[in-house]
Specification:
Layout lengths: L2 H10 L6 E6 L5 E7 L2 H7 L10 H8 L2 E6 L3 H15 L14 E5 L8 E4 L8 E6 L2 H14 L7 H5 L6 H4 L13 H15 L3 H17 L3 H19 L11 E9 L2 E10 L2 E11 L4 H12 L9 E3 L7 H12 L4 E3 L4 H38 L8 E10 L2 E11 L2 E2 L5 E4 L6 H15 L7 E4 L3 H13 L5 E6 L17 E3 L6 E2 L5 H27 L3 H5 L6 H11 L2 H6 L2 H5 L5 H12 L5
Parallel strand pairs: 7-10, 10-11, 12-16, 16-17
Antiparallel strand pairs: 1-2, 1-3, 4-5, 4-6, 7-8, 8-9, 12-13, 13-14, 13-15, 17-18, 18-19
Helix pairs in contact: 5-10, 9-10, 13-16, 14-15
Length: about 600
């Protein structure tokens, strides 16, 4: 009996109860996880052609050898279990979104008399108020700067706040009310903080009305200075929010989803309306070989279980499988109703159309970017005389300070973009020996990690470093193409290079090549090399700071035992010393500006 027949018999024997199904390949690995109101009906549907043009039967026939099911008491339990199994098994055909720890949050320590709004990645159970998460770190930091222009809240660390004796520059430019030196009462600061939090939640209309009332009250008391401050805040608030806000007449919190399919490519745009205003957009793109309703359903399951806020309404472009279960789960968690619907007309339908258009433009833009990347990578292949297109490029850079604290970095680019999961850091055993350091890194990378190998291994260095890497690869019997990148002797912004001073490429058994300085291929390789250098320098600095002690401070010109003791007592210890600014160091007894600059330079010296 054929495998196909056995599989069909297995499908027909599945229960008609709710649960989760796991498709497995010939090796027994889970390749897809789904949920179902009726397991038999749902799994059977994969063996039938779909009207949306995506033939799930092809997906089944090509890869699925077995199916396993887990029966649950309700469809809601299946909904929750599906997400856990996706995280546990990481099936290749499921959409996998980033966990909430990857998104930015805003933290407010309510226990502090003058709390700051601090961006952070990983929320803790510490009793603080957390806002978010926010998908775009750049957008929320821009918004936070706007909010501080309306409400002059501090943004310094608690340690810096506790040790200030006079206002900083931000007080002079009216970006902080200087609570560190008592220039604002705790009550007034709390009012500003509450206003800032409400703006971050999208309650701009209410805040503008509240500020207007306060301005009129101040004017009635002839406190025109306070009234002028409030007038400026109102204008700043309206100019900063209304310019980028698209309003709808209903003041609801609403997430509007747009979906665009082309081939195996899927693009989803999420427009986030808060209090009737469009405040932000999130975009996602991935490959999926499943029907549109299944793709959208799987996306929604993970999207709202990764720590995001829950709106009043969720607007979908079309019906998604188990959307009513999603509404039920979110309503229970939120404590009030969440409506999931597909609008046919009105404002919600127009917003849905706009989200769909954004999804289409996202996919179009990514397709154009892919074509551009293909052209640039082909140029790199041709100019470096490589046998294949360098889709995966890894680059090594070594950093040390006259042989001390030697470290190295390895960064990875796939199709011209950073692949952070491929980044590596190495604490080296060798000292002031760059070829030896490269030899050690290459050996540890390819001897200990037999994963994906690069199409091109780029070395930040010349022929000696390239030959060192080549000898290791030959010993390991690995056929990986090598190139070294030598910086021009004169570098820097505004420097015009003379002929022969361009970036040089070193290839084994070949003459050095010159890259056209204005070519996209040169820009790509420079970007890879500079990222490896940045990553190495950051690690080298951290390595140096980890070894800083009182003995290291005594080596700094002008630092005696008494000054070392004074600065450590004033700053709070070695850990705080490494994070201190020049101004904080200068405020320590007996230090001053010039000595503080020497101490700071010694703590943050960069390796080569």
């Amino acid at each position: 009996m054929s495998t196909r027949t056995l599989l069909m018999e297995r499908v027909e024997s599945l229960p008609q109860e709710p649960g989760v199904y796991l498709f497995k390949d010939s090796a027994g690995g889970v390749i897809y996880v789904g949920k179902a109101k009726s397991l038999r009906a749902r799994v059977r549907s994969y063996f039938q052609n779909r009207s949306d043009g995506r033939v799930a039967a092809h997906f089944i026939e090509e890869r699925v050898e077995d199916v396993e099911v887990i029966v649950t008491r309700s469809e809601k339990e299946a909904f929750l279990l599906e997400n856990n199994l996706i995280k546990q098994n990481k099936p290749r055909f499921n959409i996998r979104l980033k966990d909430d720890k990857s998104f930015l949050h805003l933290r407010v320590d309510r226990g502090h008399p003058f709390p700051a709004i601090v961006p952070m990645r990983r929320p803790r159970k510490d009793g603080a108020l957390y806002l978010g998460p926010y998908a775009s770190a750049r957008a929320i930091r821009t918004t936070l700067r706007m909010v501080r222009g309306i409400f002059p809240l501090r943004d310094c660390s608690d340690h810096e706040f506790a040790n200030r004796s006079r206002p900083c520059l931000k007080y002079q430019i009216k970006m902080c009310s200087a609570p560190c030196v008592g220039y604002v009462s705790e009550e007034q600061y709390r009012q500003d903080l509450d206003g800032a939090i409400r703006v971050l939640k999208g309650e701009t209309r209410q805040i503008a009305e509240q500020l207007l009332s306060q301005m009129q009250e101040a004017a009635s008391r002839f406190d025109f200075e306070r009234a002028a401050v409030l007038r400026d805040r109102i204008a700043f608030l309206r100019n900063s929010t209304d310019v980028q806000a698209v309003e709808v007449s209903r003041f609801v919190d609403r997430d509007v989803f747009g979906l665009h399919l082309k081939g195996d490519g899927v693009a989803i745009a999420v427009l986030k309306f808060r209090a009737g205003k469009l405040l932000s957009q999130e975009s996602f793109s991935f490959e999926a070989q499943l029907p549109a309703d299944e793709t959208l359903s799987t996306f929604l399951t993970q999207y709202y279980q990764s720590g995001r806020s829950w709106p009043d309404e969720i607007i979908l472009p079309e019906e998604a499988y188990a959307s009513e279960v999603l509404a039920q789960v979110l309503s229970e968690r939120r404590g009030k109703p969440v409506v999931v619907r597909v609008p046919r007309s009105g404002e919600a339908a127009r917003a849905s159309e706009m989200a769909g258009r954004n999804a289409e433009l996202l996919q179009q833009s990514e397709h154009e970017q892919l074509l551009l990347s293909e052209r640039i990578l082909e140029d790199v292949r041709r100019q470096l005389a490589l046998r294949r297109m360098p889709r995966r490029i890894e680059c090594i850079d070594v950093s040390h300070l006259q042989g001390a604290h030697a470290v190295a970095s390895l960064v990875c680019f796939v199709d011209g973009e950073p692949e952070k999961s491929g980044y590596r850091r190495f604490r080296l055993r060798v000292g002031n020996d760059d070829p030896g350091a490269v030899r050690e890194v290459v050996s540890r990378r390819f001897r200990n990690e037999p994963g994906d190998f690069p199409d091109l291994l780029l070395i930040d260095g010349g022929r000696a470093q390239v030959n060192a890497a080549r000898s290791v690869l030959q010993d390991l019997d690995l056929d990986i193409e090598l190139a070294g990148m030598v910086k021009p002797p004169r570098r820097g912004r505004g420097v015009r290079l003379r002929p022969g001073e361009e970036e040089r490429i070193v290839r084994p058994d070949r003459e050095d090549a010159i890259l056209p300085p204005d070519a996209d291929s040169c820009f790509l390789l420079q970007r890879v090399r500079d990222e490896a250098h940045r990553f190495a320098i950051t690690y080298h600095r951290r390595s140096r700071l980890a070894n800083v002690g009182p003995g290291e401070l005594l080596k700094i010109s002008g630092m005696g035992a008494r000054r070392v003791r004074n600065i450590l007592e004033f700053i709070g210890g070695l850990k705080e010393l490494k994070a201190a600014s020049k101004q904080q160091l200068a405020n320590a007894p007996g230090i001053g500006t010039r000595l503080a600059e020497r101490v700071y330079a010694a703590l943050h010296a960069q390796g080569g």
